[in-house]
Design goal:
Elements: E1 2-6, H1 11-26, E2 30-35, H2 40-45, E3 49-52, H3 57-62, H4 64-71, H5 77-103, E4 108-112, H6 116-126, E5 130-134, H7 158-188, H8 199-205, E6 209-211, E7 228-230, H9 246-253, E8 259-261, H10 271-282, E9 287-290, E10 305-308, H11 313-316, E11 322-325, H12 329-338, E12 342-344, H13 351-360, H14 375-384, H15 388-402, H16 406-418
Parallel strand pairs: 1-2, 1-4, 2-3, 4-5, 5-6, 6-7, 8-9, 8-11, 9-10, 11-12
Helix pairs in contact: 1-16, 4-5, 5-6, 5-7, 6-7, 10-14, 12-15
Length: 419
Protein backbone atom coordinates (compact mmCIF):
# COMPACT_ATOMS: atom_id res chain seq x y z
CA UNK A 1 0.00 0.00 0.00
CA UNK A 2 0.98 3.64 -0.37
CA UNK A 3 0.94 5.76 2.80
CA UNK A 4 0.99 9.54 3.16
CA UNK A 5 2.18 10.97 6.49
CA UNK A 6 0.97 14.46 7.43
CA UNK A 7 2.66 16.53 10.13
CA UNK A 8 4.04 20.01 10.75
CA UNK A 9 7.00 20.74 12.91
CA UNK A 10 10.64 20.55 13.83
CA UNK A 11 13.06 17.64 13.87
CA UNK A 12 11.56 16.25 17.07
CA UNK A 13 8.18 15.99 15.34
CA UNK A 14 9.54 14.53 12.10
CA UNK A 15 12.04 11.91 13.33
CA UNK A 16 9.53 9.50 14.94
CA UNK A 17 7.40 9.64 11.79
CA UNK A 18 10.43 8.87 9.64
CA UNK A 19 10.96 5.86 11.91
CA UNK A 20 7.37 4.79 11.32
CA UNK A 21 7.75 5.35 7.58
CA UNK A 22 10.96 3.34 7.49
CA UNK A 23 9.14 0.47 9.22
CA UNK A 24 6.40 0.62 6.59
CA UNK A 25 9.02 0.56 3.82
CA UNK A 26 10.66 -2.50 5.38
CA UNK A 27 7.24 -4.16 5.37
CA UNK A 28 6.96 -3.61 1.61
CA UNK A 29 4.92 -0.40 1.48
CA UNK A 30 5.73 2.99 -0.07
CA UNK A 31 5.60 6.18 1.98
CA UNK A 32 5.51 9.89 1.14
CA UNK A 33 6.30 12.43 3.85
CA UNK A 34 5.94 16.10 2.83
CA UNK A 35 8.14 18.27 5.02
CA UNK A 36 10.50 21.20 5.09
CA UNK A 37 13.36 21.00 2.59
CA UNK A 38 15.80 20.77 5.50
CA UNK A 39 14.56 17.26 6.27
CA UNK A 40 14.89 15.85 2.76
CA UNK A 41 18.23 14.02 3.39
CA UNK A 42 16.86 12.39 6.55
CA UNK A 43 13.62 11.32 4.86
CA UNK A 44 15.19 9.96 1.70
CA UNK A 45 18.03 8.22 3.55
CA UNK A 46 15.43 5.93 5.12
CA UNK A 47 13.64 5.09 1.89
CA UNK A 48 10.72 7.53 2.09
CA UNK A 49 9.65 9.93 -0.64
CA UNK A 50 10.03 13.59 0.26
CA UNK A 51 7.80 16.38 -1.02
CA UNK A 52 8.84 19.95 -0.14
CA UNK A 53 6.47 22.31 1.62
CA UNK A 54 6.44 25.98 0.69
CA UNK A 55 8.10 28.49 2.96
CA UNK A 56 10.38 27.67 5.87
CA UNK A 57 8.43 25.34 8.16
CA UNK A 58 11.18 25.24 10.75
CA UNK A 59 11.29 29.05 10.91
CA UNK A 60 7.51 29.13 11.34
CA UNK A 61 7.42 26.50 14.08
CA UNK A 62 10.60 27.57 15.88
CA UNK A 63 10.95 31.26 15.14
CA UNK A 64 8.74 34.30 15.38
CA UNK A 65 5.39 34.08 17.10
CA UNK A 66 5.35 30.38 17.95
CA UNK A 67 8.84 30.39 19.42
CA UNK A 68 8.22 33.65 21.26
CA UNK A 69 5.20 32.06 22.93
CA UNK A 70 7.07 28.85 23.69
CA UNK A 71 9.94 30.54 25.45
CA UNK A 72 8.02 33.29 27.22
CA UNK A 73 8.16 32.68 30.94
CA UNK A 74 4.86 31.43 32.27
CA UNK A 75 3.44 30.41 28.89
CA UNK A 76 0.17 28.50 29.15
CA UNK A 77 -1.69 26.30 26.63
CA UNK A 78 -3.93 29.18 25.57
CA UNK A 79 -0.95 31.40 24.68
CA UNK A 80 0.77 28.58 22.84
CA UNK A 81 -2.39 27.72 20.91
CA UNK A 82 -2.76 31.34 19.81
CA UNK A 83 0.78 31.36 18.42
CA UNK A 84 0.20 28.10 16.53
CA UNK A 85 -3.15 29.34 15.27
CA UNK A 86 -1.41 32.31 13.68
CA UNK A 87 0.80 29.82 11.86
CA UNK A 88 -2.27 27.95 10.59
CA UNK A 89 -3.89 31.19 9.45
CA UNK A 90 -0.81 32.25 7.49
CA UNK A 91 0.12 28.92 5.91
CA UNK A 92 -2.81 26.53 6.35
CA UNK A 93 -4.30 26.74 2.87
CA UNK A 94 -0.97 26.49 1.04
CA UNK A 95 0.20 23.52 3.10
CA UNK A 96 -3.19 21.80 2.80
CA UNK A 97 -2.97 22.11 -0.99
CA UNK A 98 0.56 20.68 -1.02
CA UNK A 99 -0.36 17.81 1.29
CA UNK A 100 -3.39 17.04 -0.86
CA UNK A 101 -1.29 16.77 -4.02
CA UNK A 102 1.31 14.60 -2.27
CA UNK A 103 -1.43 12.28 -0.97
CA UNK A 104 -3.20 11.56 -4.25
CA UNK A 105 -3.15 7.85 -4.98
CA UNK A 106 -2.45 6.82 -1.40
CA UNK A 107 -4.26 3.95 0.32
CA UNK A 108 -3.86 5.28 3.87
CA UNK A 109 -3.25 8.68 5.40
CA UNK A 110 -1.49 9.08 8.76
CA UNK A 111 -2.16 12.41 10.52
CA UNK A 112 0.11 13.46 13.38
CA UNK A 113 0.50 16.38 15.75
CA UNK A 114 -0.38 19.76 14.27
CA UNK A 115 -1.29 17.99 11.03
CA UNK A 116 -4.11 16.03 12.67
CA UNK A 117 -7.05 18.14 11.49
CA UNK A 118 -5.53 18.72 8.05
CA UNK A 119 -4.76 15.05 7.52
CA UNK A 120 -8.24 13.93 8.53
CA UNK A 121 -9.74 16.41 6.06
CA UNK A 122 -7.52 15.26 3.22
CA UNK A 123 -8.45 11.64 3.88
CA UNK A 124 -12.14 12.63 3.79
CA UNK A 125 -11.62 14.49 0.52
CA UNK A 126 -9.79 11.57 -1.12
CA UNK A 127 -12.10 8.92 0.33
CA UNK A 128 -9.31 6.86 1.91
CA UNK A 129 -8.92 5.48 5.45
CA UNK A 130 -6.82 7.40 7.92
CA UNK A 131 -5.13 6.94 11.28
CA UNK A 132 -4.04 9.41 13.94
CA UNK A 133 -0.69 9.55 15.72
CA UNK A 134 0.17 11.09 19.07
CA UNK A 135 3.70 11.44 20.44
CA UNK A 136 2.03 12.28 23.76
CA UNK A 137 -0.88 10.38 25.38
CA UNK A 138 -3.52 13.01 24.56
CA UNK A 139 -6.59 10.76 24.60
CA UNK A 140 -9.11 11.80 27.28
CA UNK A 141 -8.84 9.62 30.37
CA UNK A 142 -9.59 9.58 34.06
CA UNK A 143 -6.12 8.22 34.77
CA UNK A 144 -4.06 11.42 34.38
CA UNK A 145 -4.42 15.07 33.31
CA UNK A 146 -3.40 16.29 29.82
CA UNK A 147 0.35 15.97 29.17
CA UNK A 148 0.54 19.58 27.97
CA UNK A 149 -0.52 20.88 31.38
CA UNK A 150 1.83 21.21 34.32
CA UNK A 151 1.57 18.01 36.42
CA UNK A 152 -0.40 18.73 39.60
CA UNK A 153 1.20 18.33 43.00
CA UNK A 154 -1.45 15.79 44.03
CA UNK A 155 -3.62 13.17 42.36
CA UNK A 156 -6.74 14.66 40.78
CA UNK A 157 -10.17 12.96 40.76
CA UNK A 158 -10.90 11.06 37.56
CA UNK A 159 -13.75 13.32 36.48
CA UNK A 160 -11.51 16.37 36.87
CA UNK A 161 -8.91 14.77 34.61
CA UNK A 162 -11.56 14.03 31.98
CA UNK A 163 -12.82 17.60 32.16
CA UNK A 164 -9.29 18.97 31.75
CA UNK A 165 -8.69 16.78 28.69
CA UNK A 166 -11.95 17.79 27.05
CA UNK A 167 -11.46 21.44 27.95
CA UNK A 168 -7.96 21.57 26.48
CA UNK A 169 -9.16 19.82 23.31
CA UNK A 170 -11.82 22.49 22.89
CA UNK A 171 -9.31 25.29 23.47
CA UNK A 172 -7.14 23.86 20.70
CA UNK A 173 -10.04 23.14 18.34
CA UNK A 174 -11.74 26.51 18.72
CA UNK A 175 -8.45 28.21 18.01
CA UNK A 176 -7.77 26.22 14.84
CA UNK A 177 -11.39 25.96 13.66
CA UNK A 178 -11.54 29.06 11.41
CA UNK A 179 -8.29 28.24 9.59
CA UNK A 180 -9.11 24.53 9.27
CA UNK A 181 -12.62 25.17 7.96
CA UNK A 182 -11.36 27.80 5.53
CA UNK A 183 -8.89 25.28 4.06
CA UNK A 184 -11.60 22.61 3.96
CA UNK A 185 -13.83 24.94 1.95
CA UNK A 186 -11.27 26.58 -0.34
CA UNK A 187 -8.88 23.68 -0.93
CA UNK A 188 -10.72 20.43 -0.20
CA UNK A 189 -14.26 21.43 -1.20
CA UNK A 190 -15.65 20.06 2.07
CA UNK A 191 -18.27 21.41 4.47
CA UNK A 192 -17.02 22.92 7.74
CA UNK A 193 -16.51 20.82 10.84
CA UNK A 194 -19.22 21.72 13.39
CA UNK A 195 -18.57 23.91 16.38
CA UNK A 196 -18.26 20.89 18.69
CA UNK A 197 -15.27 19.61 16.72
CA UNK A 198 -14.35 16.35 14.98
CA UNK A 199 -14.91 14.16 18.04
CA UNK A 200 -18.40 12.85 17.13
CA UNK A 201 -17.21 11.84 13.67
CA UNK A 202 -14.20 10.03 15.14
CA UNK A 203 -16.44 8.10 17.51
CA UNK A 204 -18.48 6.96 14.51
CA UNK A 205 -15.57 6.07 12.23
CA UNK A 206 -13.17 4.83 14.94
CA UNK A 207 -9.91 5.45 13.06
CA UNK A 208 -6.86 3.80 14.59
CA UNK A 209 -5.19 6.17 17.04
CA UNK A 210 -1.57 5.27 17.73
CA UNK A 211 0.28 6.64 20.76
CA UNK A 212 4.03 6.23 20.29
CA UNK A 213 5.19 5.63 23.84
CA UNK A 214 6.10 2.51 25.76
CA UNK A 215 3.47 0.76 27.91
CA UNK A 216 6.34 0.21 30.36
CA UNK A 217 6.45 3.97 30.84
CA UNK A 218 2.71 4.61 30.78
CA UNK A 219 0.25 1.74 30.33
CA UNK A 220 -2.88 2.13 28.23
CA UNK A 221 -5.58 3.59 30.49
CA UNK A 222 -8.48 1.27 31.21
CA UNK A 223 -11.00 3.79 29.86
CA UNK A 224 -9.35 4.22 26.44
CA UNK A 225 -11.36 2.64 23.64
CA UNK A 226 -10.38 -0.33 21.47
CA UNK A 227 -9.19 1.80 18.54
CA UNK A 228 -6.70 3.66 20.78
CA UNK A 229 -3.34 1.86 20.91
CA UNK A 230 -0.10 2.23 22.88
CA UNK A 231 2.52 0.83 20.52
CA UNK A 232 5.87 1.41 22.18
CA UNK A 233 8.40 4.12 21.29
CA UNK A 234 9.37 4.71 17.65
CA UNK A 235 13.15 4.83 17.41
CA UNK A 236 15.11 6.00 14.38
CA UNK A 237 18.43 4.34 15.10
CA UNK A 238 21.41 5.80 13.29
CA UNK A 239 24.22 4.99 15.69
CA UNK A 240 25.33 1.83 13.89
CA UNK A 241 26.39 3.85 10.85
CA UNK A 242 27.71 6.87 12.75
CA UNK A 243 31.45 7.34 13.08
CA UNK A 244 32.28 9.26 16.25
CA UNK A 245 35.13 11.76 16.31
CA UNK A 246 38.45 10.28 17.39
CA UNK A 247 38.59 12.81 20.22
CA UNK A 248 35.25 11.57 21.60
CA UNK A 249 36.39 7.94 21.56
CA UNK A 250 39.60 8.90 23.33
CA UNK A 251 37.67 10.82 25.97
CA UNK A 252 35.28 7.91 26.63
CA UNK A 253 38.18 5.43 26.84
CA UNK A 254 40.15 7.63 29.24
CA UNK A 255 37.99 7.07 32.30
CA UNK A 256 34.66 5.90 33.77
CA UNK A 257 31.41 6.63 31.92
CA UNK A 258 30.64 10.35 32.00
CA UNK A 259 27.36 12.19 32.53
CA UNK A 260 25.59 13.63 29.49
CA UNK A 261 24.21 17.18 29.81
CA UNK A 262 22.25 18.73 26.96
CA UNK A 263 18.98 20.56 26.42
CA UNK A 264 18.32 19.80 22.76
CA UNK A 265 16.69 22.59 20.75
CA UNK A 266 15.62 24.61 23.77
CA UNK A 267 16.39 28.32 23.62
CA UNK A 268 15.39 31.23 25.79
CA UNK A 269 18.30 31.02 28.21
CA UNK A 270 21.87 32.35 28.47
CA UNK A 271 24.22 29.64 27.10
CA UNK A 272 27.28 30.98 28.90
CA UNK A 273 25.46 31.19 32.23
CA UNK A 274 24.02 27.70 31.79
CA UNK A 275 27.47 26.30 30.96
CA UNK A 276 28.94 27.94 34.07
CA UNK A 277 26.12 26.52 36.20
CA UNK A 278 26.68 23.01 34.83
CA UNK A 279 30.45 23.13 35.30
CA UNK A 280 30.10 24.28 38.90
CA UNK A 281 27.69 21.43 39.62
CA UNK A 282 29.94 18.86 37.97
CA UNK A 283 33.05 19.63 40.02
CA UNK A 284 35.56 16.93 39.06
CA UNK A 285 32.91 14.65 37.55
CA UNK A 286 33.45 13.58 33.94
CA UNK A 287 30.80 14.80 31.50
CA UNK A 288 29.82 15.21 27.88
CA UNK A 289 28.36 18.67 27.31
CA UNK A 290 26.16 18.87 24.22
CA UNK A 291 25.78 22.20 22.47
CA UNK A 292 22.70 21.27 20.43
CA UNK A 293 20.50 23.99 18.97
CA UNK A 294 20.40 25.68 22.36
CA UNK A 295 24.00 26.85 21.89
CA UNK A 296 25.56 25.77 25.18
CA UNK A 297 29.07 27.27 25.27
CA UNK A 298 31.48 24.34 24.78
CA UNK A 299 34.61 26.53 24.62
CA UNK A 300 37.35 26.53 27.23
CA UNK A 301 36.05 23.43 29.01
CA UNK A 302 38.14 21.57 31.61
CA UNK A 303 39.80 18.29 30.61
CA UNK A 304 37.07 16.37 32.47
CA UNK A 305 34.35 17.73 30.16
CA UNK A 306 34.00 16.99 26.45
CA UNK A 307 32.19 19.53 24.27
CA UNK A 308 29.99 17.70 21.76
CA UNK A 309 28.20 19.28 18.82
CA UNK A 310 25.86 16.31 18.24
CA UNK A 311 25.72 12.51 18.27
CA UNK A 312 22.98 9.87 17.77
CA UNK A 313 21.37 9.22 21.12
CA UNK A 314 21.21 5.47 20.47
CA UNK A 315 25.03 5.45 20.20
CA UNK A 316 25.82 7.92 22.96
CA UNK A 317 23.40 7.34 25.84
CA UNK A 318 24.28 3.67 26.56
CA UNK A 319 27.88 4.86 27.08
CA UNK A 320 26.84 7.42 29.71
CA UNK A 321 26.56 7.04 33.48
CA UNK A 322 23.45 9.27 33.52
CA UNK A 323 21.63 11.72 31.27
CA UNK A 324 20.55 15.29 32.08
CA UNK A 325 18.14 16.57 29.42
CA UNK A 326 15.13 18.80 28.70
CA UNK A 327 12.47 16.07 28.68
CA UNK A 328 11.43 16.05 25.04
CA UNK A 329 9.54 12.89 24.10
CA UNK A 330 12.31 11.59 21.83
CA UNK A 331 15.17 12.31 24.21
CA UNK A 332 13.21 10.81 27.11
CA UNK A 333 12.59 7.65 25.07
CA UNK A 334 16.28 7.35 24.16
CA UNK A 335 17.45 7.83 27.75
CA UNK A 336 14.99 5.29 29.12
CA UNK A 337 15.95 2.68 26.53
CA UNK A 338 19.64 3.19 27.32
CA UNK A 339 18.93 1.95 30.86
CA UNK A 340 20.67 4.79 32.72
CA UNK A 341 19.20 7.25 35.25
CA UNK A 342 17.94 10.55 33.87
CA UNK A 343 17.33 13.98 35.35
CA UNK A 344 14.81 16.10 33.43
CA UNK A 345 15.11 19.88 33.35
CA UNK A 346 11.85 20.80 31.56
CA UNK A 347 11.27 24.00 29.64
CA UNK A 348 7.80 23.78 28.10
CA UNK A 349 5.00 21.69 26.60
CA UNK A 350 4.96 18.00 27.49
CA UNK A 351 8.44 18.06 29.06
CA UNK A 352 7.22 18.41 32.69
CA UNK A 353 4.90 15.45 32.05
CA UNK A 354 7.75 13.19 30.89
CA UNK A 355 9.95 14.40 33.72
CA UNK A 356 7.25 13.45 36.21
CA UNK A 357 6.96 9.98 34.61
CA UNK A 358 10.72 9.41 34.84
CA UNK A 359 10.61 10.30 38.53
CA UNK A 360 7.48 8.20 39.21
CA UNK A 361 9.20 5.17 37.66
CA UNK A 362 12.08 5.59 40.10
CA UNK A 363 14.71 6.04 37.39
CA UNK A 364 15.46 9.73 37.94
CA UNK A 365 15.23 12.58 40.46
CA UNK A 366 12.18 14.83 40.57
CA UNK A 367 12.24 17.17 37.55
CA UNK A 368 13.31 20.76 38.08
CA UNK A 369 12.44 23.58 35.64
CA UNK A 370 15.41 25.40 34.11
CA UNK A 371 14.56 28.68 35.89
CA UNK A 372 14.80 26.85 39.25
CA UNK A 373 18.05 25.03 38.45
CA UNK A 374 21.08 25.95 40.57
CA UNK A 375 24.54 24.37 40.82
CA UNK A 376 23.74 22.83 44.21
CA UNK A 377 20.45 21.35 43.00
CA UNK A 378 22.05 19.89 39.88
CA UNK A 379 24.88 18.47 42.00
CA UNK A 380 22.32 16.86 44.33
CA UNK A 381 20.51 15.30 41.36
CA UNK A 382 23.78 13.91 39.99
CA UNK A 383 24.58 12.36 43.37
CA UNK A 384 21.12 10.79 43.55
CA UNK A 385 21.65 9.14 40.15
CA UNK A 386 24.77 7.43 41.53
CA UNK A 387 22.66 5.39 43.97
CA UNK A 388 22.72 1.65 43.17
CA UNK A 389 18.96 1.16 43.56
CA UNK A 390 18.13 3.84 40.99
CA UNK A 391 20.74 2.48 38.59
CA UNK A 392 19.30 -1.03 38.96
CA UNK A 393 15.76 0.16 38.26
CA UNK A 394 16.92 2.15 35.23
CA UNK A 395 18.80 -0.84 33.81
CA UNK A 396 15.81 -3.15 34.28
CA UNK A 397 13.41 -0.69 32.65
CA UNK A 398 15.80 -0.18 29.75
CA UNK A 399 15.95 -3.93 29.14
CA UNK A 400 12.14 -4.19 29.03
CA UNK A 401 11.87 -1.26 26.61
CA UNK A 402 14.57 -2.71 24.34
CA UNK A 403 12.50 -5.89 24.09
CA UNK A 404 9.61 -3.94 22.52
CA UNK A 405 9.08 -3.24 18.82
CA UNK A 406 7.01 -0.07 18.75
CA UNK A 407 7.39 0.55 15.02
CA UNK A 408 6.55 -3.06 14.15
CA UNK A 409 3.44 -2.93 16.32
CA UNK A 410 2.37 0.33 14.67
CA UNK A 411 2.88 -1.09 11.17
CA UNK A 412 0.70 -4.12 11.95
CA UNK A 413 -2.09 -1.88 13.30
CA UNK A 414 -1.98 0.32 10.19
CA UNK A 415 -2.05 -2.70 7.87
CA UNK A 416 -5.08 -4.02 9.72
CA UNK A 417 -6.76 -0.60 9.49
CA UNK A 418 -6.56 -0.72 5.71
CA UNK A 419 -7.70 -4.34 5.51
Amino acid sequence: MRVSIITYGSLGDVRPLVALGAGLVRAGHSVVLPADREFRPLIERHGLEHRPLSGDVRAVTQGGGAADALFRRGVNPVQLTRALVRMAQDHGEAWTREYLEASRGCDLLVAAGLGFYTGAGIAESLGVPWAGVGLQPMGPTRAFPPPLMKPPAFRLPGLVNIALHLGLMQVVWQGFRPAINRARRNVLGLPPIPLAGPGPRMMREKPALLYAHSPQVLAKPADWLDFMHVTGFWYLDEGAEWEPPVSLRRFLDAGPPPVYVGFGSMGGYDPAATTALVLEALGDRRAVLSAGWGGLDAKALPSTVYGLESAPHDWLFPRMAAVVHHGGAGTTAAALRAGVPAFVVPFLGDQPFWGARVHALGVGPAPLPRKELTPSRLAAALALMDEPDMRTRAAALGARIRAEDGVGTAVRILEQAVR
